[in-house]
């Protein structure tokens, strides 16, 4: 077929619609950002309608040309040394811009036109290995800028960059600051000049992770008003902050620094409201230091090596509302001294991870306003009912990770306001007594079920709205009591141990909206017969998340959930016995589903059949799915496809079945499709040449060529007009079109031909390489006389074609005059042009002729369905058992002949 070399050139010259895809960028709407958030960590703002992140940026102009002008958030990752003037002026609506580009300089006017920009970040390798030059008026146009973040690069200490008046947050982190005073040289606006009357105010000055930051030159930030100063992970003594000349400071963070004692002077100097000196070696708090801290509302002393608290600790801080004492070694808590009657206004108290064993009855007696108490990760064995007697306002209680063997009968009755209780990883023995949960208002419960030898009843408060149950495997099934949870909206079940008998889940959980099945054998909730359907029919369920921990041996069809909007299926493929699934085995009829995220499910094939039942789907995200095959039925279905398809950390199989994708992706105007796939395809020889997927398919798949043909069919008009002009092309095309027409015509003529007499019984289509098999095996078996052979009349191209007649004519005539068409298929036959022509004609005849012939396929070697070109519509034939594989083993060959005889008839 001589037209192969000519057509690509012709067809490539046809105008293709500009693609609704971007080569290196990921686009998303803010509302669906959580589904792809790991790619947007630099600019993850869900409130923005439309965001883009671009990777491997080396040519800014080229990359940005593919980004829609309407994006409001833009993250660029790559390597571009300087930002040219007007780099982003075509994005006037940009609100967030994050640049991780190894920039060394911004040219003047680089950020021109970004009057709406609110947040700007420059990121680079940490700890100042690179420097960044900013012209003084770099931010001159950014009249709405609220947040400026420079993380990594070093700025010139005398850069003198002007800051927009609107700025509220300034962060210079992971950089090479040594002295806080250097900021005054970089951003002179921060410091009050002698003439300026109204001082600068910032919500936040963030200097964390400047590992070389040790100094704070006195008076260097004279006049600056700060709400929050963050010095976490620096080497600056927090106490020296008071010398900076700040006019105001409310909140000071100094975690993991060199603080050795409470920076009491700084607290007193600024009348600080919040101080966090966690993860410093403090060990001891003196009475005097405490005396200066009476302005504090919040104090963070987590992991500071405290073994005891000084007497009168709370009394010294009468305004204190939040106290974090987690991760210390407080063996006993002496917050409330004795019956002096002093009460504290504390609302949140964190005592997690302190190794506490016993809490005396009066421990919390002076905390009547406490709302939230964290006691997780201690050694508590028992809790006296009296302990909580004074906590009349307590709403949240965390007791996870405590042995907790003994709980009094009415241990929660004393907590009338309790709404949230967490009891994960305890050894609590659950009493079946409904009074066990005492607290009237409890609506959120997290609970680990103990292993019991016998089935038992799990008695829970009836009015729960949120429930999380952990159940280790090997447990006997629990029954739930009561048997209706009329208000439950959120249910999480973790572990494989729980087997709820809920055939009638909709009656048990009539209002359930969010369900998570984690680390759970999905099979527990799946019918055990052949249908494998998810059993929980929950009419109000909106979101379902299933994380299988790689243990499910068969897929479970999620279907029949009329309100489901979001579905996440993760790690469903069994690690031990991986199995490929099709999308229609995972999801069924879900009419309201808008977002579907699949990850590690073993998905291999996507076809239109699955999407037909997901009429509202807008976003499809595939993570870590291997060797995907996108069936070409999707092409015809594409107008109804989801608007966004992300194929991330996944790869498409290097199979010709995927060859239709590339042109479609480029052409698709309704679906945004992103395939981040760095996988390379090996050549048949295995090593060493590697190719990106689409160029591999282009080179290796004959179909790509003919596929282009298909795509061009919409341009057929153009082609027909051009045809008379293109003499050569005409010479190549006409015979084929003629042949198709004749097939059709002869098929029609054969109408009414019930008793039509055929010239041949079997037309044998095969390629030259398979001729040996045909002559040695097939011919004797079919043409030989009874009983060894069937005595049929075969048509073999090399033997029975009319000499001198055109090949196409010969094939068509012989096929039409044969009762049965037998295609002998092997990898070689699929690659030979004549083999494909015959296959295509046979398929056309089969589909188009009013009285189609019988088409049979004999495979000489296993060939996957995806290798068979989709447009041959062979899939339809294959399903009907009209094919058989020629076995290698001698003893199984009889089976093959039996099949052939049965299909050829008498
Ligand atoms: C970047 O791409 C544009 C357009 O493709 C091109 O004109 C320009 O020369 C490229 N710049 C560099 C530095 O390669
Ligand atoms: C309260 O405790 C303080 C310090 O431990 C002690 O001096 C005082 O006598 C106690 N008062 C009462 C009433 O127990
Ligand atoms: C659910 O079905 C079981 C038996 O099929 C029945 O005993 C139970 O009462 C039903 N629950 C509700 C809430 O109807």
From TrEMBL:
SUPFAM superfamilies in UniProt: L domain-like, Toll/Interleukin receptor TIR domain
A GO MF term: signaling receptor activity
TIR domain residues: 758-904
GO cellular component: plasma membrane
Family matches, as PROSITE patterns: LRR (PS51450), TIR (PS50104)
One Pfam family recorded for the sequence: LRR_1
GO biological process: defense response to protozoan; inflammatory response; innate immune response; toll-like receptor signaling pathway
Keyword annotations: Glycoprotein, Immunity, Inflammatory response, Innate immunity, Leucine-rich repeat, Membrane, NAD, Receptor, Repeat, Signal, Transmembrane, Transmembrane helix
Broad class of where this protein is predominantly found: membrane
Transmembrane segments: none
InterPro entries: Leu-rich_rpt, Leu-rich_rpt_typical-subtyp, LRR_dom_sf, TIR_dom, Toll_tir_struct_dom_sf
Signal sequence coordinates: 1-19
Membrane topology of this protein: Single-pass type I membrane protein
Key word Protease present: no
Compartment(s): Membrane
Family: Belongs to the Toll-like receptor family.
Protein name: Toll-like receptor 12
Organism per entry: Peromyscus maniculatus bairdii
């Amino acid at each position: 077929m001589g037209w192969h070399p000519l057509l690509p050139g012709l067809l490539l010259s046809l105008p293709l619609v500009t693609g609704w895809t971007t080569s290196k960028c990921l686009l998303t709407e803010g509302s669906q950002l959580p589904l792809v958030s790991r790619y947007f960590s630099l600019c993850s703002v869900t409130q923005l309608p439309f965001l883009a992140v671009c990777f491997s940026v080396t040519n800014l102009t080229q990359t940005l040309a593919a980004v829609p002008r309407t994006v409001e958030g833009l993250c660029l990752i790559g390597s571009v040394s300087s930002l040219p003037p007007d780099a982003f002026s075509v994005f006037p609506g940009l609100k967030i811009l994050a640049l991780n580009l190894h920039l060394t300089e911004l040219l003047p006017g680089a950020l021109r036109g970004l009057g709406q920009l609110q947040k700007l970040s420059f990121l680079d390798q940490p700890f100042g290995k690179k420097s960044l030059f900013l012209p003084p008026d770099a931010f001159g146009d950014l009249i709405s800028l609220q947040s400026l973040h420079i993380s990594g690069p070093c700025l010139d200490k005398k850069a003198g960059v002007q800051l927009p008046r609107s700025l509220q947050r300034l962060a210079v982190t992971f950089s090479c600051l040594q002295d806080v005073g250097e900021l005054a040289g970089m951003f002179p606006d921060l410091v009050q000049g002698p003439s300026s009357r109204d001082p600068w105010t910032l919500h936040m000055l963030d200097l964390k992770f400047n590992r070389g930051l040790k100094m704070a030159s006195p008076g260097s930030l004279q006049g600056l008003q700060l709400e929050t100063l963050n010095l976490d992970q620096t080497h600056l003594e927090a106490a020296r902050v008071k010398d900076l000349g700040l006019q105001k400071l409310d909140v000071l963070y100094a975690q993991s620094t060199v603080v050795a004692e409470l920076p009491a002077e700084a607290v007193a100097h600024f009348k600080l409201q919040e101080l966090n000196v966690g993860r410093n070696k403090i060990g001891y708090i003196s009475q005097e230091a405490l005396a200066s801290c009476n302005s504090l509302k919040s104090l963070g002393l987590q992991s500071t090596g405290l073994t005891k608290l000084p007497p009168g600790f709370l009394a010294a801080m009468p305004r204190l509302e939040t106290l974090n004492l987690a991760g210390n070694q407080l063996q006993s808590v002496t917050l409330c001294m004795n019956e002096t009657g002093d009460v504290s206004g504390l609302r949140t108290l964190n005592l997690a991870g302190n190794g506490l064993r016993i809490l005396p009855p009066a421990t919390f007696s002076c905390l009547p306003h406490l709302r939230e108490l964290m006691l997780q990760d201690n050694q508590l064995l028992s809790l006296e009912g009296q302990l909580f007697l004074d906590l009349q306002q307590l709403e949240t209680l965390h007791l996870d990770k405590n042995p907790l063997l003994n709980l009094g009968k009415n241990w929660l009755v004393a907590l009338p306001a309790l709404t949230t209780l967490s009891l994960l990883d305890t050894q609590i023995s659950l009493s079946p007594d409904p009074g066990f949960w005492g607290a009237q208002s409890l609506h959120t419960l997290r609970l680990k079920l103990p292993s019991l030898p016998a089935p038992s009843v799990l008695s829970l408060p009836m009015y729960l709205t949120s429930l999380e149950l952990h159940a280790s495997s090997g447990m006997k099934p629990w029954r739930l009591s009561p048997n209706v949870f009329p208000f439950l909206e959120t249910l999480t079940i973790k572990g494989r141990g729980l087997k709820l008998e809920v055939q009638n889940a909709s009656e048990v959980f009539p209002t359930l909206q969010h369900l998570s099945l984690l680390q759970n054998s999905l099979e527990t909730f799946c019918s055990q017969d052949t249908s494998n359907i998810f059993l929980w029919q929950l009419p109000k369920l909106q979101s379902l998340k299933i994380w299988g921990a790689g243990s499910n041996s068969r897929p479970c069809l999620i279907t029949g959930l009329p309100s489901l909007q979001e579905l996440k299926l993760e790690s469903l493929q069994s690690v031990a016995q991986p199995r490929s699934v099709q999308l229609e085995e995972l999801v069924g009829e879900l009419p309201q589903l808008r977002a579907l995220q699949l990850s590690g499910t073993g998905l291999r094939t996507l076809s239109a059949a699955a999407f037909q039942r997901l009429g509202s789907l807008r976003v499809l995200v595939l993570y870590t799915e291997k060797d995907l095959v996108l069936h070409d039925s999707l092409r015809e279905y594409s107008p109804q496809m989801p608007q966004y398809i992300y194929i991330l950390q996944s790869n498409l199989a290097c199979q010709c079945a995927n060859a239709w994708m590339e042109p479609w992706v480029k052409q698709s105007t309704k679906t945004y499709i992103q395939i981040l796939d760095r996988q390379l395809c090996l050549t048949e020889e295995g090593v060493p040449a590697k190719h990106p997927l689409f160029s591999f398919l282009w080179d290796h798949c004959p179909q790509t060529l003919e596929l282009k043909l298909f795509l061009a069919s919409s341009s057929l008009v153009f082609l027909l007009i051009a045809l008379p002009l293109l003499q050569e092309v005409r010479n190549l095309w006409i015979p084929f079109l003629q042949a198709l027409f004749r097939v059709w015509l002869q098929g029609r003529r054969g109408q009414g031909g019930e008793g039509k007499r055929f010239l041949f019984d079997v037309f044998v289509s095969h390629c030259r390489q398979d001729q040996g098999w045909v002559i040695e095996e097939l011919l004797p078996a079919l043409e030989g006389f009874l009983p060894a052979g069937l005595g049929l009349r075969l048509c073999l191209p090399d033997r029975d074609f009319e000499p001198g007649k055109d090949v196409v004519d010969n094939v068509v005539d012989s096929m039409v005059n044969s009762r049965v068409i037998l295609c002998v298929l092997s990898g070689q036959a699929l690659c030979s042009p004549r083999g494909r022509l015959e296959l295509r004609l046979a398929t056309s005849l089969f589909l188009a002729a009013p009285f189609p012939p019988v088409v049979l396929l004999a495979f000489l070697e296993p060939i996957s369905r995806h290798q068979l070109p989709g447009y041959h519509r062979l899939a339809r034939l294959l399903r009907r058992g009209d094919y058989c594989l020629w076995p290698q083993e001698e003893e199984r060959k009889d089976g093959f002949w039996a099949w052939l005889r049965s299909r050829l008839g008498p």
